[in-house]
Design brief:
The protein starts with a helix and ends with a helix. It has 583 residues and is α/β, with parallel strands linked by helices. The protein has a six-stranded parallel beta sheet, sandwiched between helices. A six-stranded parallel beta sheet has the order 11-10-9-12-13-14, with helices on both faces. Strands 18-17-19-20-22-21 form a six-stranded parallel beta sheet, with helices on both faces. Helix 2 crosses helix 3, helix 2 packs parallel to helix 7 and helix 13 packs parallel to helix 20. It has three domains: 171 residues, Rossmann fold (3-Layer(aba) Sandwich), CATH 3.40.50.970; 166 residues, TPP-binding domain (Rossmann fold); 209 residues, Rossmann fold.
């Protein structure tokens, strides 16, 4: 047999269908888990997961929104793109909430969407959607990039570009559209090597300028957060703060960026911010923002820092040049990834003493005081809670959860309890411990917790509201199927609490649409394969939690909460204040 015929046979034997190549490319990028809901539009890719099931696991979810949230959680935990597979039309539109969350939260993610066959395209075929228009890559869109793979030979190119785009600069989601016929074509292409995110270093001149600004400051303050943090960069941030004795606040729902137990920690800069912390930021003469976009929630509706030119001097460090000076005109803008930025900052030579040492110490004292239950008119602020004291519940969590436990939540008034009273050891200790949507998406906590359990094997705790839980509670079935144990604490007050709180403030004599007629959540959890427990007293929580920690299966603890316990993070809500006035 001639050499040419041998080579032709080798090529033929190495060929495979596009769906199999696609999964092989994911493995080459280090992906160990993909989350999704199966669809007939990408059967060839599903067959690829079967072929390579000893190297990558396809986690079958119950709804595409839950699957996309799991992929978002995967991206946050690993620093590499989370992977989600959905089918065309309804599948993709369901998944869009996860894409939007990943975009606003700066999470690397790749969504793969099965699509109509090439020959039926542009006829409004069954479930056809123009995904480039729908996901619309832009500063106001849902994805950093949207592409369609029409040629199976180019699958490695598109996958590699998607991973690079998702990780580099400001992390975010990428959408790849997969025509179903393309996935069945035979190809001999091979995966490209694993990509690592590019590190953007700050220039030496900017660092010298930053040092001079610090030396001239009297009341500096650091706000840390955003995506792209690793244990190494978080540790470097801590050394920078220690060298210069800088008070540090964590941006909204990035509360694990800086160790909450550190004497320089000043609290989280987000919804329901400690009024003393808010005033401290306003009184600062130098704000150093490392990583966050400085969005609406972190800036209290753009009031802590005025737009476009803050009264304070502003140093803004961000991985994306497009983000810098987009909303706030900074006195010094530095484009750098978090690893590079923090490692540059930690070697800035600090003076032997700084004039703001007392300022930093008082910032920490204010934070610690705010973690204690407040009082109003001589009454404990939490006395209107009926038989359940939520600050004590969170105190029990703090005592029993291990330092590396992952805490997740969706959106709602209920999350304020954890945000205010629970202390995160932080990424600097080697692990990410908070998964929460800065975009304010309800239904995030349950699927994010399940993803964390699947990926890490660590203790996972989720706090949910009754309205929040019912948006993705069906994913408990996913947890049971894949052996993922989580502990869910569900606060049942029979309402959309945040909306009711705003109604009581703005329309105190009316409420509409916020009441909920709920199922027995403990029994519902049992139907999904979890243990279900219902409690109504504070003292019942600790034994329920310790039993849940010892149990091999997941547990849902339903807490029957008095509707009057709707609270902001600092003061009683309008509904509770009105109730007190009439008593």
């Amino acid at each position: 047999m001639s050499d040419q015929k041998v080579k032709l046979q080798e090529v033929a034997s190495s060929s495979q269908i596009g769906g199999h190549l696609l999964v092989e490319c994911l493995i080459a990028q280090g992906v160990t888990h993909a989350f999704g809901v199966p669809g007939e539009s990408y059967l060839a890719a599903l067959d690829g997961f079967h072929k390579y099931q000893d190297q990558i696991q396809f986690v079958t979810c119950r709804q595409e929104g839950g699957a996309a949230f799991m992929a978002d959680a995967q991206g946050r935990l690993t620093g590499r793109p989370g992977v989600c597979f959905v089918t065309r039309g309804p599948g993709a539109t369901n998944a869009s909430i996860g894409v939007h969350t990943a975009f606003q939260d700066s999470t690397p993610m790749v969504l793969f969407v099965g699509d109509v066959a090439t020959e039926t395209r542009d006829r409004e075929a069954f479930q056809e959607v123009d995904f480039c228009s729908f996901f619309g890559p832009s500063t106001k869109g849902m994805a950093k990039r949207v592409e369609r793979i029409d040629d199976a030979k180019r699958i490695p190119e598109y996958v590699a570009r998607a991973f690079a785009t998702a990780m580099n600069g400001r992390p975010g989601p990428v959408v790849l559209v997969l025509p179903e016929d393309m996935l069945t074509h035979e190809v001999s292409s091979r995966p490209l090597p694993k990509l690592e995110p590019v590190q953007a270093w700050s220039d030496p001149g900017s660092l010298r300028e930053l040092r001079e600004m610090l030396l001239q400051a009297q009341r500096p303050f650091v706000i840390a957060g955003g995506g792209g943090w690793t244990p190494q960069s978080a540790q470097a941030l801590q050394r920078f703060a220690e060298n210069w004795q800088l008070p540090v606040g964590n941006a909204f729902r990035f509360q694990d960026t800086f160790d909450n137990f550190h004497p320089l920690y000043a609290g989280d800069v987000g919804i329901g911010i400690n009024p003393k912390l808010a005033q401290r930021i306003k009184d600062s003469d130098l704000i150093i923002a490392i990583g966050p976009r400085l969005g609406e929630m972190t800036t209290s509706g753009y009031t802590l820092l005025e737009v476009p030119k803050p009264k304070q001097k502003l140093v803004h460090i961000h991985a994306s040049a497009e983000e810098l000076n987009r909303v706030y005109h900074a006195d010094l803008a530095i484009c750098a990834s978090m690893n590079a930025a923090a490692r540059s900052l930690e070697v800035l030579t600090a003076p032997h003493s700084v004039p703001w040492a007392d300022w930093a110490a008082q910032a920490n004292a204010d934070y610690l005081a705010n973690t204690q239950p407040q009082t109003l008119a001589g009454l404990p602020a939490d006395s209107a809670q009926g038989l359940v004291n939520m600050p004590e519940v969170i105190s029990v969590l703090q005592r029993h959860l291990p330092a590396d436990a992952v805490l997740t939540n969706g959106a709602g008034n209920f999350a304020s309890w954890v945000h205010r009273y629970y202390k995160h050891h932080g990424i600097s200790k080697g692990f990410k411990t908070q998964l929460a949507p800065t975009v304010g998406a309800m239904g995030y906590g349950v699927p994010a917790g399940i993803a964390a359990a699947v990926l890490t094997g660590r203790v996972v705790f989720t706090i949910a509201g009754d309205g929040d839980f019912l948006m993705n509670g069906q994913e408990l079935a996913t947890a049971a199927q894949h052996g993922a144990k989580t502990i869910v604490v569900l606060l049942n007050n029979g309402m959309y609490g945040t909306i009711r709180m705003h109604q009581e403030r703005d329309f105190p004599t009316h409420n509409m649409g916020s009441h909920l007629n709920n199922p027995n959540f403990a029994n519902l959890a049992k139907a999904y394969g979890y243990e279900g427990v219902r409690i109504s007293k504070t003292e019942e929580f600790e034994p329920a939690l310790t039993e849940a920690l010892a149990r091999n299966q997941g547990t849902l603890i339903e807490i029957m909460l008095d509707p009057e316990a709707i609270t902001t993070r600092v003061t009683l809500s309008a509904i509770t204040q009105n109730a007190l006035k009439t008593k």
